[in-house]
Amino acid sequence: MAGAYMQKVHSESNRRSARCRLTRRDVLAWAKQPKRVKARSLLCYWAFRELRMSCTVVAEKLSMTQPDVSKAVQRGEGLAERDNFEFIQGEERNL
Predict the structure, then answer these.
(1) What is the DSSP letter of 58?
(2) 90 partner at 20 to 30 Å CA-CA among 7, 49, 51, 56?
(3) Cβ neighbours of residue 11 under 8 Å, at least 6 residues apart?
(4) Are 40 and 28 in contact (CB under 8 A)?
(5) Taking Cα atoms as reference points, which of 43, 47, 50 lies closest to residue 22?
(6) Which of 56, 67, 78, 69 is nearest to 28 (CA)?
(7) Which of 21, 62, 50, 52 is nearest to 38 (CA)?
(8) d(CA 79, CA 43)
């Protein structure tokens, strides 16, 4: 089951990177450029909210610390609300 979750995280990281005009590697790399922070924050928020992954698991998978993921989740939630961002729903969500 963890493999399926990570496949979805990788798939979503590709979508986030395309939306922000970054490569998947850019999104997952540690950096403080605004576009990278936004994409990574949305990815963390999506993994936490939609996949119900704990911040600790997300941190392990994205090579981040748990406190950084917690902050990214909060930031991602604010970005999603502010920009009226909606996650794709449907068959993909049902694993």
Answers:
(1) H
(2) 56
(3) none
(4) yes
(5) 43
(6) 69
(7) 21
(8) 11
Q: What is the pTM of this model?
A: 0.67
Q: Which CATH superfamily is domain 2-87 in?
A: DnaA protein, C-terminal DNA-binding domain (1.10.1750.10)
CA angle 61, 37, 77 (to 5 degrees): 85
- What tokens appear for 9 in the block? 């995280």
Q: Where are the domains of the chain?
A: 2-87
The string of pLDDT tens digits covering residues 42-76 is: 999 999 988 899 999 999 988 899 999 999 999 99
Distance CA 66, CA 8 (A): 20
Tally the residues of the chain.
95
Distances (CA, A) of 94 to 5, 22, 50, 57, 90: 11, 27, 10, 20, 7
First to last CA, the chain: 9
